[in-house]
Specification:
two-stranded antiparallel ribbon, alpha+beta, single chain, elongated
């Protein structure tokens, strides 16, 4: 009878598959919460909803060679300055409109 090495056995690879899947699941949960905290409105990467009251433009950055958004002076949207709650409601309505178009 031939001696089979331990790394060839079926039970070993089943255990490895379970550990890899569990580890990937834990990493996915961590990355999900990390992404949600970094992409919420009002953080360093995403401006607050009241940014709709300001002029938005794209300007080319000569160092990177890419266009980057630039927040300018005050410029009311459709002639009205929105409060933070109104701006959030307006952005939320826009998101729902885009989602409805995708259905």
């Amino acid at each position: 009878m031939t001696d089979i090495p331990w790394w060839v056995s079926e039970s070993f690879w089943k255990k490895i598959a379970i550990w890899v899947t569990a580890g990937a699941f834990v990493i996915l949960i961590f990355l999900t919460f990390d992404s949600l905290s970094q992409t919420s409105a009002g953080t360093r990467r995403v401006p607050a909803y009241t940014v709709i009251n300001q002029q938005l433009d794209y300007r080319k950055n000569d160092q990177t060679g890419r266009f980057q958004p630039v927040i300018g002076d005050s410029q009311p949207l459709f002639g009205k300055v929105y409060s933070a709650a109104e701006a959030e409601a307006l952005v939320d309505l826009g998101k729902k409109t885009v989602q409805a178009k995708n259905c």
